[in-house]
TrEMBL record:
Residues 1-15 have a biased composition (Low complexity). Its EC number is 2.3.3.14. Transmembrane segments: none annotated. It comes from Aspergillus versicolor CBS 583.65. Residues 35-288 form the Pyruvate carboxyltransferase domain. This is homocitrate synthase. GO terms for molecular function: homocitrate synthase activity; metal ion binding. PROSITE patterns: AIPM_HOMOCIT_SYNTH_1, AIPM_HOMOCIT_SYNTH_2, PYR_CT. Belongs to the alpha-IPM synthase/homocitrate synthase family. Homocitrate synthase LYS20/LYS21 subfamily. GO terms for biological process: lysine biosynthetic process via aminoadipic acid. Its cofactor is Mg(2+); Mn(2+).
Length: 412
């Protein structure tokens, strides 16, 4: 007798991820299944309004990020202050698996100080938009190109990784951008960086620029997206689709103004697309611990709708949702909470509750009722919920009282 098909109606094929979103369109340029993370909480995150990390806190955060599995940890320019330099040296001495990077201006003095701290790599940056050139450093493109090549050449003699990034890339002239990127690529940088410094880029703009750049340079491409317009995660994903290799993140997205691509949010996006790569490479169960650590350090609450760790992230309330979730969680979840060490919650103490949720709750309370009894008990809970908000204890009390009446033979 032939075995039943794994693809019969109502079944989940054994070779398909139930949390996936259907057929993936492959692209030889795409890096969505082989990207690297440059974690910038200790650089970009230091620019967050509430941030002040002393040395011990920086070490604690760096260690947690290393245990999570980030590829790089980016630190504030050691020229920013004497303590910044000392902190950079202290983190370099930890012997982390992640490579430690210093973020510097495109200036030879900065480069020398950074190398002296013992970092594994140096991230060089200079503004290239007309606004940045006029109101920030006041240099023209010829000066920028000449200085960039000079700084890169020096850093390469010191045996460190080198990244060169333009600031305000998406408001820079395209010809200027491609010219400077081609020059630094020829000078031997390991990565070029594209930065949406003010958060103005859209996913389509990101895809188009990275796709063009991928045809101009042979080195890796790092991307840095601010979240002023709420596009940071989408922009990061599109950048990877177009051929970028590295994404800058920070924990909870903290940074200048609205911050940058959040580490947890990016993981949520990527695990829904390529779970094998993400789950094998990163300790997803450490996300909540890291976010709690940083949230306490900068004195903020984790938003209720934060990907993965927000208290509503895996809460299901509407009756029809609850029924489906109890039957097969992937019906209303693109992410399996267990992958992140989290649990789902079916909310049953409201006027929206369905009888399937009440049946599930009764089973949790070791109470056995028929479907009809569960439906009648649900009606009682809904009636009270129409009058006032209910706590879990309220709903549990109604379930228990209803069951006692059934046991005693009284009319519920």
């Amino acid at each position: 007798m032939p075995s039943p098909s794994n693809n019969s109606p109502g079944s989940t094929p054994l070779n398909r991820n139930p949390y996936g979103h259907g057929t993936q369109v492959s692209d030889f340029l795409s890096n969505v299944s082989r990207f690297k993370i440059i974690e910038s909480t200790l650089r970009e995150g230091e620019q967050f309004a509430n941030a002040f990390f002393d040395t011990q806190k920086k070490i604690q955060i760096a260690t947690a990020l290393d245990e999570f599995g980030v590829d790089y940890i980016e630190l504030t320019n050691p020229c920013a202050s004497e303590q910044s330099r000392l902190d950079c040296e202290a983190i370099c001495r930890l012997g982390l698996k992640a490579k430690v990077l210093a973020h510097i201006r495109c200036h030879m003095d900065d480069a020398r100080v950074a190398v002296a701290t013992g970092v594994d790599g140096v991230n060089v940056m200079i503004g290239t938009s007309s606004l940045m050139r006029q109101h920030s450093h006041g240099k023209d493109m010829e000066y920028i190109k000449r200085t960039a090549v000079e700084v890169i050449s020096y850093l390469k003699t010191q045996g460190v990784e080198v990244r060169f990034s333009t600031e305000d890339s998406f408001r820079s002239d395209l010809v200027d951008l491609l010219s400077i990127y081609a020059a630094v690529d020829q000078a031997g940088v390991h990565r070029v960086g594209v930065a949406d410094t003010i958060g103005c880029a859209s996913p389509r703009q990101v895809y188009e620029l990275i796709r063009v750049l991928r045809g101009v340079v042979s080195c890796d491409i790092e991307t840095h997206f601010h979240d002023d317009a709420g596009c940071a995660i989408a922009n990061a994903y599109c950048a990877l689709e177009a051929g970028a290799t590295h994404i800058d993140t920070s924990v909870l997205g903290i940074g200048e103004r609205n911050g940058i691509t959040p580490l947890g949010g990016l993981m949520a996006r990527m695990v829904g697309t390529h779970p094998e790569y993400v789950k094998e490479k990163y300790r997803l169960d450490r996300i909540k611990e890291i976010e709690d650590l940083v949230a306490e350090a900068v004195q903020v609450n984790i938003p209720f709708n934060n990907p993965i760790t927000g208290f509503c992230a895996f809460t299901h309330k509407a009756g029809i949702h609850a029924k489906a979730i109890l039957n097969d969680p992937s019906t209303y979840e693109i992410i399996n909470p267990a992958d992140f060490g989290m649990a789902r919650y079916v909310h049953f103490a409201s006027r929206l509750t369905g009888w399937n949720a009440i049946r599930s709750r009764a089973q949790q309370l070791n109470i056995s009722m028929t479907d009809e009894q569960c439906k009648e008990c649900t009606a009682k809970i809904k009636a009270l919920a129409d009058i006032r908000p209910l706590a879990i204890d309220d709903a549990d009390s109604i379930i228990r009282a209803y069951y006692r009446n059934i046991q005693s033979g009284e009319t519920p």
